[in-house]
Write a structure and sequence with these properties.
By secondary structure, the protein is of the alpha+beta class. 29% of the residues lie in helices and 37% in strands. The protein has a single domain, classed as Immunoglobulin-like (Sandwich). The chain contains two helices and nine strands; from the N terminus they run H-E-E-E-E-E-E-E-E-E-H. A hairpin with a 5-residue loop joins strand 6 and strand 7.
Length: 150
């Protein structure tokens, strides 16, 4: 039992792939492919997911339901999907939603534990960089205008 807990703890955290008003799709590496998790976007009631269809780089890829509620996306051994466009069609509660994004580069092949979290961190660093850059531009503009007026 302890060994199973250690293996589960070492599994990389899922990375957000896309979201809509009703649902969000996360992706994590799995042996021989990727694992997709479909969850409600906010504190809504649970989704009744009936089917998931996936296209990576405009090629269909089979997705099969797992007993734990996730979906397994098989891919041939040796393929690298990092950075390729991915389109996930989720059938739930009588409707179909199409979410698109890019397969995170850290998930191309078997990622090391924690590398998925590095991708999320990189995204937040980019957001912080843009905020700092925008504030800097506004400060330079304020200085330029104040010098003109004096």
């Amino acid at each position: 039992m302890l060994g199973a807990a250690l293996v589960h703890a070492a599994a990389p955290a899922p990375v957000p792939l896309g979201h809509s008003a009703l649902l969000a799709v996360d992706v994590a590496p799995a042996a021989g492919g990727l694992e997709l998790r479909v969850r409600p976007a906010t504190g809504q009631t649970a989704l009744l997911v009936s089917d998931v269809a996936v296209r990576i780089d405009n090629q269909s890829a089979p997705a099969t339901a797992r007993p734990d509620g996730g979906w397994f996306l098989a891919r041939p051994a040796g393929t690298q999907d990092g950075g390729k466009p991915i389109e996930v069609t989720v059938g739930h509660d009588g409707i179909h939603e199409v979410l698109s994004g890019r397969v995170p580069a850290s998930l191309a092949g078997e990622a090391a534990p924690g590398s998925a979290a590095g991708t999320v961190m990189s995204s937040s660093r980019k957001q912080l960089f843009w905020w700092i850059l925008n504030i800097g531009i506004v400060l330079v503009a304020v200085l330029a205008i104040s010098r003109r007026m004096s």
